[in-house]
């Protein structure tokens, strides 16, 4: 199979879909790999690194799309790429279709086969291709939140860890999934007081068992959230519904109940956000302020640490890329039910229920 690795063109996205180590494995399995010139530079991988393991470097993104049977990337195609995706082509990447009707319609029109990293699901119900980026984003959420709590960034002027004689800052984490656990771990490590909420009591028991005593749990409901937002300095949105639009746990009117300079980091922005006032931002222009509440809603947070993120991503995607390349998507998905759950759009037809629910379209036929 011919696999193409284009350069990411989303704002400040420096990750790349495949490391040289991943390309080495594909070439070893007799596949052809085309890498766009400069695609890996942001992650610290250079054209000669790819050439040394057998890749062919192509000058333009158009060539990569035109010559490849399968495109392996990091982020969803943006508007400039819509017309490059071909009928019958496999596109393997993060799509987050439920948050973008325009992207969904464009991929339907392309009649390509879209396999989404974020909906590949293993037998335990975990999301193996989303997990490493959730780990990165969860940890980064505290770094960014701590920075934007500083007064020059319009935050409350609170040091999360506090100092002797001054109480530490308070962090509220919405969701006890991968993002929430990693965020809580980082915040606790800084010495902050952390409250993590979820509707899943098993997850809350797990948090209670593994976290230090200054990480406390509460059941997630509107009453508790309204109570907690009044006293917490940093709020992390880490709620995920597999393949679906995130629920709005914080509504616009709740902002008035927060103290001026409170910071919200909505990691769920890729899925529409779990805060009603969330709108996607970029690393170039990461924040905006509504009702004196600072919103950080960068849609590709791990793109700020591209070396770590690219290596972590290739570690988990490569086995699936090899299956798709070795067997073709139909055989691979028939044999691997985890991979089959990644199928979102096939030959112009939506095959993933949560996408149609997000846009109130006719349901997918079973």
Automatic annotation (TrEMBL):
Species this protein is from: Flagellimonas maritima
PROSITE patterns: ALADH_PNT_2
Family: Belongs to the AlaDH/PNT family.
Residues reported in the UniProt entry to bind NAD(+): 134, 198, 203, 220, 239-240, 267-270, 298-301
Protein name: Alanine dehydrogenase
CDD domains per UniProt: L-AlaDH (cd05305)
Gene Ontology CC, one term: plasma membrane
Top-rank taxon: Bacteria
EC number(s) from the headed UniProt entry: 1.4.1.1
Alphabetized UniProt keyword annotations: NAD, Nucleotide-binding, Oxidoreductase
Any one GO BP annotation for this protein: L-alanine catabolic process
Annotated ranges, domain Alanine dehydrogenase/pyridine nucleotide transhydrogenase NAD(H)-binding: 149-297
SUPFAM superfamilies hit by this protein: Formate/glycerate dehydrogenase catalytic domain-like, NAD(P)-binding Rossmann-fold domains
UniProt-annotated catalytic positions: 96 (proton donor/acceptor), 270 (proton donor/acceptor)
Annotated residues for binding of substrate: 15, 75
One MF term in the entry's GO annotations: alanine dehydrogenase activity
